[in-house]
What does this fold into?
Amino acid sequence: MIRHLVFDIGMVLVDFRWRDLMQELGITGEALEHTARATVQGPYWNEFDRSRISGEEIREMCCALDPAYAPQIRLYFDHIGEICREYPYSYEWLHSYKEKGYGIYLLSNYARLSFESVRPPFSFLSLADGRVISYEVQEIKPEPAIYRILLEKYSLIPEECVFIDDNSANIDTARSLGMQGIVHRNREETDRALSSLLTL
It folds into this structure.
């Protein structure tokens, strides 16, 4: 029986709007492509989420990848708390399942600098019965360690959990550990998939 729903944050509960943010900052055209390749599409972004290295150090490592665009890269990091925007329905969505008696948990890759810069904090955080964010434990999905930390920290039985994430590789790891998994594309599809699982 499913008792707990585990949600990713980015592209499930919030819009990871990295391109929009660059454009809002005036980083467009060729500058946008260079800045993206040095940051969100670059070799250090996973380590930014892991946060074993400080955000400031990662920023300078990104700048070193493309020194000609260092001003744009630094500007981007100055506004990194704006990279995600909560979907209008997220609080109500989680609340609807919490009211039905399901445990609500969060498991997400999210850098310390980004997460702690969000203003105001995401409203749905108050609904979570527990959470593991990558920067807090310095582990990232799809590596199994971060999943095990969540399960052990809250004494969750994997077979009683459904993990909802937009990345199929992250779902594969959850399933390998005994959890059910739903690859998220939109709320409507995920609700239909959840309905099927929760009625089994």
In short: Residues 187-198 form the longest helix (12 residues).
